[in-house]
C-alpha cells in the first residue's frame, strides 16, 4: 500500500514538474511580469505611509475622529493621504517603466518620466463640475452634513439663464482628475508602463538616439539620447488620445477601466477568486516554488485596485458592499491567506513547540516560532519540510482554502465589515494587522483563524511527529548496536 501511494505521488510530482511548472515559471520570468513585480515595489512606501494618514483622517474611535475633524487636522491628513496612497497609479506607471528599461540595460529615469507623461497625456485633464454631484446628493459641510439638499440645488440652478447653467455645469478643465491617479487607473498604469518600457527599450536598442560629442557632459548627453524614443512614444500617445476623444468621446484610461479593470475586479472579487487564491499559494510552495512570489506578482494587478477603491470609500465614510466595496483585496491576500506564512502554519508551530516529541520537530519549532509571529515560515517550508511532504499536505492546502472562503462569507453576509484599504505591512503580527485593516471585529476573526489553523494541523502533525519519533528511535537503536 505504501509503495503504491509513493508511486502515485511520484507520478503526480512528475506531471506537475514537467507539465505545469515550466510554463508557469516561463510566464513569471518574462520581462513584463518581472517589471510589474519589481516596479510595484516602488509604490510600497507610499502605500504604507498613506495608510497611516488614512487611519488618522478616519480614526476608528469616534471621539478622536470628531476632535480631528473639528480641529481641522483631518483635512491635513486627507491631503497627505491623497498625495501618497491616493495617487498609487502614478507610482506604478513610473516604477514599471523604470524597472523594464533598467533590466534592458539602458538609462531608466528618462523612460520612467516618459511613461508618467504618457499616463497624463492619455486621460482627460478635467473633472466634473461639483454642482453636478450636488444636484443628486446636495451640498455638505466639512463635517459631511448636508446643508443644502439636492432638490434645492436643482431648483436654484433651474432659475438661472440657460447659458449660465451650461457654463457653471461644464467640466473644470486643465486639472488632473485624482480618480484616475488612484486605484481606478491601476490597470491602465500597468499597461502604459509596460508599453513605454518595451517601445523605449526597442528604440534604444536600434540606435534611435541623438549622439553628442564626447566633450558634452554625460548628464546632458543622456537626456538627448532619450529625446527620440520619448518623442516617438509621446507622439503616438497624443494620436491615441485624439482617436479616443474623436470617435468615442472618452479617453484610454476610462476605456481600459470599463473594458478590462472592472471585469478583472469582478473575477478576482468572487467565490471563485477566493478559492483560486486560497489554493494557489500552497500549491506552488508544495512543489518547491515560491508560491507567494508567483501569486503575488500576478494577483497584485487585480487586488491593488480593490484595495485602493476600498480606501477611497473608507475615507469618504461609505465603506459598505452596497456602495461597491470589494471583499477580496491585497490585504485579504496578505493578512488572511498568508497569515503567519504560506499555508497559515501557526497551528503547526504551536504543535512543534508545545506537543512535539521528535527532536526534528522540536528543533525546527524553536527556530520558526519568532519568524512565524511576523508571517515568515520559510524555515518550516524547507526545514521541516512542508515542501513535497504528503503527511502535511492536507492541512497545508486546506487551511488557507477554509480561511479564504470563510472570510469571504463573513464579509459577504455582513458579519464582518469590508477591509478598509489600510495597507498593513505583511510582517505585521496577527490580530494587530486585523485591527488595522478592519477594526476590532477583524482582529477577533484573525485570532479565530489562528485557532482554526491549530485544530487543522494538530492531528496531521501528531501523526507525522510519531513517524519521525519512531525513525529517530530506530536510528538511535541502530547506532547503539553499531557502537556495541
From TrEMBL:
Residues 16-460 form the PTS EIIC type-3 domain. InterPro entries: PTS_EIIC (IPR003352), PTS_EIIC_3 (IPR004501), PTS_IIC_cello (IPR004796), PTS_Sugar-EIIC/EIIB (IPR051088). It is found in: Cell membrane. Keywords: Cell membrane, Membrane, Sugar transport, Transmembrane, Transmembrane helix, Transport. The keyword Secreted does not apply. It is a multi-pass membrane protein. It comes from the Bacteria. It holds the Pfam family PTS_EIIC. The chain crosses the membrane at residues 41-61, 81-101, 108-125, 178-203, 270-287, 294-316, 336-356, 391-415, 435-458. The phosphoenolpyruvate-dependent sugar phosphotransferase system (PTS), a major carbohydrate active -transport system, catalyzes the phosphorylation of incoming sugar substrates concomitant with their translocation across the cell membrane. This is Permease IIC component. The lineage of its organism: Bacteria, Bacillati, Bacillota, Bacilli, Lactobacillales.
Amino acid at each position: 500500500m505504501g509503495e503504491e501511494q509513493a508511486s502515485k505521488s511520484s507520478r503526480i510530482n512528475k506531471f506537475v514538474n514537467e507539465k505545469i511548472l515550466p510554463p508557469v515559471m516561463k510566464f513569471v520570468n518574462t520581462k513584463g511580469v518581472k517589471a510589474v513585480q519589481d516596479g510595484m515595489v516602488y509604490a510600497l512606501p507610499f502605500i504604507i505611509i498613506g495608510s497611516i494618514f488614512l487611519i488618522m483622517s478616519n480614526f476608528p474611535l469616534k471621539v478622536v475622529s470628531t476632535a480631528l475633524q473639528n480641529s481641522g487636522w483631518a483635512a491635513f491628513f486627507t491631503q497627505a493621504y491623497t498625495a501618497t496612497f491616493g495617487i498609487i497609479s502614478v507610482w506604478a506607471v513610473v516604477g514599471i517603466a523604470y524597472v523594464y528599461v533598467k533590466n534592458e540595460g539602458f538609462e531608466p529615469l528618462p523612460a520612467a518620466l516618459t511613461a508618467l507623461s504618457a499616463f497624463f497625456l492619455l486621460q482627460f485633464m478635467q473633472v466634473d463640475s461639483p454642482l453636478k454631484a450636488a444636484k443628486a446628493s446636495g451640498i455638505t459641510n466639512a463635517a459631511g452634513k448636508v446643508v443644502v439638499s439636492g432638490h434645492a440645488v436643482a431648483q436654484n440652478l433651474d432659475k438661472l439663464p440657460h447659458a449660465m447653467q451650461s457654463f457653471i455645469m461644464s467640466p473644470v478643465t486643465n486639472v488632473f482628475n485624482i480618480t484616475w491617479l488612484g486605484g481606478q487607473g491601476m490597470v491602465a498604469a500597468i499597461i502604459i508602463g509596460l508599453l513605454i518600457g518595451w517601445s523605449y527599450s526597442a528604440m534604444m536598442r536600434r540606435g534611435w538616439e541623438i549622439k553628442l560629442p564626447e566633450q558634452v557632459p554625460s548628464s546632458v548627453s543622456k537626456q538627448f539620447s532619450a529625446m527620440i524614443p520619448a518623442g516617438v512614444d509621446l507622439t503616438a500617445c497624443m494620436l491615441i488620445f485624439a482617436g479616443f476623444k474623436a470617435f468615442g468621446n472618452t479617453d484610454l484610461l476610462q476605456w481600459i477601466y470599463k473594458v478590462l479593470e472592472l471585469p478583472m475586479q469582478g473575477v478576482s472579487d468572487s467565490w471563485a477568486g477566493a478559492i483560486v487564491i486560497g489554493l494557489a499559494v500552497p500549491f506552488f510552495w508544495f512543489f518547491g516554488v515560491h508560491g507567494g512570489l508567483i501569486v503575488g506578482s500576478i494577483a497584485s494587478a487585480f487586488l491593488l485596485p480593490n484595495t485602493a477603491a476600498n480606501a477611497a470609500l473608507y475615507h469618504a465614510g461609505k465603506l459598505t458592499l452596497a456602495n461597491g466595496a470589494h471583499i477580496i483585496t491585497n490585504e485579504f491576500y496578505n493578512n488572511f491567506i498568508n497569515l503567519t506564512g504560506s499555508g497559515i502554519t501557526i497551528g503547526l508551530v504551536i504543535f512543534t513547540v508545545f506537543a512535539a516529541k521528535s527532536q526534528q520537530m522540536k528543533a525546527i519549532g524553536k527556530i520558526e516560532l519568532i519568524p512565524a509571529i511576523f508571517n515568515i515560515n520559510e524555515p518550516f517550508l524547507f526545514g521541516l519540510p512542508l515542501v513535497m511532504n504528503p503527511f502535511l499536505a492536507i492541512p497545508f492546502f486546506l487551511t488557507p482554502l477554509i480561511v479564504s472562503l470563510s472570510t469571504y462569507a463573513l464579509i459577504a453576509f455582513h458579519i464582518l465589515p469590508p477591509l478598509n484599504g489600510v495597507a498593513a505591512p505583511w510582517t505585521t503580527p496577527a490580530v494587530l494587522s486585523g485591527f488595522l485593516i478592519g477594526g476590532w471585529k477583524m482582529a477577533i476573526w484573525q485570532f479565530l483563524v489562528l485557532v482554526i489553523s491549530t485544530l487543522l494541523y494538530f492531528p496531521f502533525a501528531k501523526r507525522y511527529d510519531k513517524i519521525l519519533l519512531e525513525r529517530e528511535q530506530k536510528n538511535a537503536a541502530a547506532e547503539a548496536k553499531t557502537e556495541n
